[in-house]
Write a structure and sequence with these properties.
The chain is an alpha+beta fold. Helix content is about 30%, strand content about 20%. The protein has three domains: about 5-150, Muramoyl-pentapeptide Carboxypeptidase, domain 1 (Orthogonal Bundle), CATH 1.10.101; about 170-220 and about 280-370 and about 385-400, L,D-transpeptidase catalytic domain-like; about 225-275, no CATH class.
Length: about 400
């Protein structure tokens, strides 16, 4: 069934919900919309004006929600993916919540995820501009579980942080919004490029940083960072005699070794180094954008482009993967007189090549769980690191907002 047909069917059913909840649905979004890497048009407004408009829109939407009386809602709660054929208590809560929101007849509530429930879920997803797949995973579940009051609070926090960013950020900056998992290049006050990103998983959070890009590396190698080496790769070496990384060189005490012939049982992580060679197979893709922080956090490409199709893209070990790393490289290197033809020749050499930026490009990591899309619709994003209650934006939100405790060096 097509999403448009699903929504039409839903509108034909009587909606047993209060006008307030219907209004809430018009402003509460589940996750970031599917976002292709898109260059800004020549008519685009200055980015500071865009942020002002976003903040005003968020405050206006929050005011509407705050005016409504608070009502109890049914929360599905965390757990396994729910889909057609699922059953049990969480499905029963799902049907109750869909009925509260007007997407399902209250008489249809039950503990079986059947065709009618699937249709209701797809209608909800379509209303939120989410991926319409009938699957209640992390993004859809969070959207369903969010109350209007919680949505309003997210909008207020994000609006305040946006204004602080607008007033303090440089005219040229790369903005990484962790909850929406997007990266935007602003050059000379104008949005130049926006793309999907992949950020750190909750167990390996991407910290909130103020930093700068100093070098672009074409055809990078990837040295497995200490945390990944200790927790992932050394156990694999001990169990199977391989690090599970294509085209990698394993070093023991500084010398390359054939991993299958080494007894790794009593080898400590500090004695081991694993370096993946350049190429399309490399975990960093073909581009790495070096920064200066002590945590070894940087931006880079990837050899797994399929991951950008996910609504929730919190799967890295802390670094930020870019959907259009080539586009970012071209944009940053244009001021270094590196043409696309020269970049192609560099790629063909199949060896690392470092390009130092004559003017480092500032990078700001922010935590905006509410944004506004190009249709002026409010979008709410999951609180991926459970930071919302801790964040109290001030004049410089990136400096005052807490990052993860004791971040470890990461990569990929």
């Amino acid at each position: 069934m097509h999403a448009s047909q699903t929504l039409t069917d839903h509108r034909r059913r009587p909606a047993p919900v209060l006008a307030a909840l219907t209004l809430a649905l018009s402003v509460i979004a589940g996750t970031a919309a599917t976002l292709a890497a898109t260059p800004a048009t020549a008519e685009a407004a200055p980015y500071r004006d865009t942020l002002t408009g976003w903040a005003d829109r968020l405050d206006a939407a929050a005011t509407v929600l705050e005016a409504e009386p608070e009502r109890a809602i049914t929360r599905i709660g965390s757990g396994p993916l729910l889909k057609k054929g699922s059953s049990g208590e969480r499905v029963e809560r799902l049907t109750q919540r869909l009925a509260e929101l007007g997407f399902l007849d209250p008489l249809r509530r039950g503990d079986l995820y059947d065709e009618e429930v699937d249709t209701a879920v797809r209608a909800f997803q379509f209303s939120q501009r989410m991926k319409v797949d009938g699957l209640v995973g992390g993004g859809t579940r969070v959207a369903l579980d969010r109350s209007p009051q919680e949505a309003a609070a997210q909008m207020r926090r994000s609006a305040l942080s946006m204004r602080a960013f607008r007033d303090t950020a440089p005219d040229t900056v790369i903005l990484v919004n962790l909850p929406s998992q997007t990266t935007t290049l602003v050059r000379d006050g104008e949005e130049a490029l926006t793309m999907r990103s992949i950020v750190g998983r909750p167990s390996r959070e991407t910290p909130l940083l103020q930093d700068q890009i100093t070098h672009v590396i074409v055809n990078p190698t990837w040295t497995v960072p200490p945390t990944v080496l200790k927790e992932d790769k050394l156990p694999l070496l001990r169990a199977k005699g391989t690090p599970g990384i294509a085209n990698a060189v394993v070093y023991l005490d500084g010398a390359p070794v054939e991993p299958a012939v080494v007894d790794w049982r009593n080898v400590s992580p500090r004695r081991v180094r694993i370096v993946q060679q350049p190429g399309d197979h490399n975990a960093l893709g073909r581009y790495r954008f070096n920064m200066t922080n002590p945590y070894n956090i940087y931006l880079h490409g990837t050899n797994e482009p399929r991951l950008f199709d996910r609504e929730i893209r919190t799967v890295s070990s802390g670094c930020v993967r870019l959907e259009d790393a080539r586009g970012m490289a071209e944009a940053l290197l244009a001021t270094e007189h590196v043409s696309t033809a020269r970049l192609d020749r560099m790629l063909d050499r199949q060896e690392p090549q470092w390009i130092k930026l004559s003017q480092p490009v500032p990078v700001r990591f922010v935590y905006w769980t509410a944004t506004v899309d190009d249709r002026d619709a409010v979008r709410l994003h999951p609180d991926i690191y459970d930071l919302n209650e801790d964040l109290v934006p001030a004049a410089a939100p990136d400096a005052t907002a807490p990052g993860p405790a004791d971040p470890m060096p990461q990569g990929a």
